[in-house]
Design goal:
heterodimer, A: 260 residues, mainly alpha, globular, B: 316 residues, alpha/beta, Rossmann fold, Alpha-Beta Plaits, six-stranded mixed beta sheet, four-stranded antiparallel beta sheet
Chain lengths: 260, 316
């Protein structure tokens, strides 16, 4: 029974993910924004802040090394709401009623969406790392380090995406959700160590920034890039990711199938 | 289903409805906007949970065994359940596979249905490029991927041009000939009349009449007498004269203000007409034209719902 059920979840999820990827293949224009956005963010932040915020750093180069992992994570946080918005768009369509009236797995709608979005997160992280490489960003651990950074960006992005999915379905209005979801994404991106060490932030921000998963994720990417201590930030981020995937994940699936 | 109730806030969309659809028949739910048709369909398709009552679909309780119900029905909702960004074929295969078909079977079935529905040339195009009629047909094809034992259609022809409507009806007639049990909602009496084995008239959440189309028409199908007066100003006097001499309640006589036209039901046909003419002549009211005719579809529907002016209510 359990095996049959998990087989069904896996099969239906891959069908839904396949649907998303096919839509992208047929409408490649939809990929332009998600792929250009990270590069624009990188160029903007490095150009504006890269040479400015050198006051307490030894050299501009080292701030850049600090900033680029922050941008990778911030980009994932800013991309994540699109998962929720896409799911909400589906939920209001006739297609959602079709899915709900099929004997398919209820979780597959969310899991399939996440699976296809994981690819977007991964491609964005790879693009950012390539562009950052051109700007002089080096990852000492080489290819395994780069792979680990991409994995962190994907895991972090997916966990925020799940939270956005739940919130979007809860709000249940596309226009409101669009405004509501990007705001916390921006807030968590800034009240963190993404752009400055926690100690440099305004006093009231510091406790929030320390608890923020963006801080944990950015810290982990920095450690992976410099071969610094990675175990503790990895554990901290792991807890966040597991918690966000599980709790809002279950709530989102429930919200999706809730009969009116 | 028995004693089914569903309310949305203050509005009772479905009010103690009992309904049975016999296997192999086509049942029509006929009603104006806001009558509760969509809510009933959504309850049957496990999309809405009733507040009270028992609903069994093909032997399964929708509340206790929704998965069993979903595995056996096909739903064509009011809004096409299709992915606009995908090709027609991809939609059919995706929905078939999600319903449990193997890839090979889903592909075969998709090609077969595309042929049946006259979409063979269109299935390799994105649904976004389809006309309304093609979309409806593809949506219906999607509901048929698994050969459901019960097909539920919510206003399948609303918004279609007459040619597309005919095409869709041809397909439904074929399905009925194959023995598929169908329940469909419609706003068009003519449609229910032509195709349904049993018609249930739904009004404000209640089934107010059930029967074959012929039975329903017999209930309201008395002829009407139409009388046009020479002088429209005499209409009130004419109503008075008819009410008195034919002992009719004045409400039974409808007047079209300004043109001096009176309409009344004529249970005895020509005899009623002659009596009416005599009544008017006795009061010296002259008549320009008078005749008998069958009630229009609108009149039949209005007679059944008993409300010439139904208050607008929210859908579902």
């Amino acid at each position: 029974m359990t095996a049959a059920l998990s087989h069904r979840v896996a099969r239906d999820s891959s069908l839904i993910a396949g649907r998303q990827l096919r839509v992208l293949r047929m409408n490649p224009a939809r990929l332009i924004y998600p792929l250009v956005q990270p590069l624009v963010l990188l160029v903007l932040f490095v150009s504006v802040l890269g040479n400015l915020a050198v006051t307490r750093q030894a050299a501009a180069g080292s701030y850049r090394e600090f900033l680029i992992p922050g941008i990778i994570i911030q980009n994932a946080a800013l991309t994540a709401p699109t998962t929720g918005l896409a799911l909400l768009r589906d939920a209001g369509s006739g297609l959602a009623d079709r899915f709900r009236s099929l004997p398919m797995s209820r979780a597959a709608v969310l899991i399939g969406r996440l699976a296809s979005d994981a690819m977007i997160f991964a491609v964005q992280a790879v693009l950012l790392l390539c562009a950052a490489g051109l700007l002089g960003f080096r990852v000492r651990a080489g290819l395994p380090g780069l792979a680990a950074i991409v994995a962190v960006a994907v895991a972090f992005g997916l966990s925020v995406a799940v939270a956005s999915a739940w919130l979007a379905l809860l709000i249940n209005d596309a226009e409101t959700a669009e405004r509501v979801l990007f705001f916390p994404a921006i807030a968590i991106a800034f009240v963190s160590s993404a752009f400055a060490p926690v100690g440099e932030l305004a006093g009231w921000m510091q406790p929030i920034a320390r608890a923020n998963p963006v801080t944990a994720a950015a810290g982990l990417v920095r450690s992976l890039a410099n071969e610094g201590p990675a175990v503790f930030p990895a554990l901290e981020l792991g807890c966040w990711v597991a918690g966000l995937l599980l709790v809002p994940g279950i709530l989102a699936v429930r919200q999706w199938q809730a009969p009116s | 289903m028995a004693g089914v109730v569903k309310a949305f806030g203050e509005v009772t969309a479905v009010d103690k409805v009992d309904l049975t659809v016999s296997p192999g028949t086509l049942a029509a739910l006929l009603g104006p906007n806001g009558a509760g048709k969509t809510t009933l369909v959504r309850i049957i398709a496990t999309l809405t949970r009733p507040d009270a009552g028992l609903v069994r679909v093909l032997g399964y309780d929708v509340a206790a065994h929704p998965a069993q119900v979903r595995a056996r029905i096909g739903l064509t909702g009011q809004y096409a359940g299709l992915d606009e960004g995908l090709r027609g074929r991809d939609n059919l295969v995706l929905i078939g596979r999600l319903a449990g078909l193997q890839r090979r079977h889903a592909c075969q079935r998709a090609a077969e249905l595309a042929g049946t529905f006259g979409l063979t040339d269109a299935v390799d195009r994105a649904v976004r490029t389809y006309s309304g009629g093609m979309r409806r047909r593809l949506d219906l094809a999607a509901s048929l991927m698994t050969r459901p034992a019960l097909l539920v259609l919510d206003e399948p022809t609303t918004g279609l041009d007459p040619a597309s409507r005919q095409k869709l009806w041809a397909v439904l007639a074929e399905l009925r000939a194959e023995g598929t049990t169908m329940l469909l909602t419609t706003q068009y009496l003519e449609e229910a009349d032509r195709f349904a084995d049993v018609v249930h008239v739904l009004h404000r959440g209640r089934i107010i009449a059930s029967g074959t189309a012929a039975q329903l028409k017999a209930r309201v199908g008395r002829q009407v007498a139409e009388i046009r007066l020479d002088d429209p100003a005499l209409a009130p006097a004419a109503v008075h004269a008819l009410a008195r001499r034919l002992s009719l309640p004045p409400g039974e006589i409808r007047t079209e203000s300004g043109v001096g036209q009176l309409t009344l039901t004529a249970p005895d046909g020509t005899a009623t007409l002659l009596a009416a003419a005599a009544a008017l002549a006795a009061d010296k009211i002259t008549v320009a034209d008078l005749g008998l005719r069958l009630p229009s579809l609108d009149e039949a529907f209005l007679a059944l719902t008993g409300a010439a002016v139904s208050q607008p209510r929210s859908r579902r």
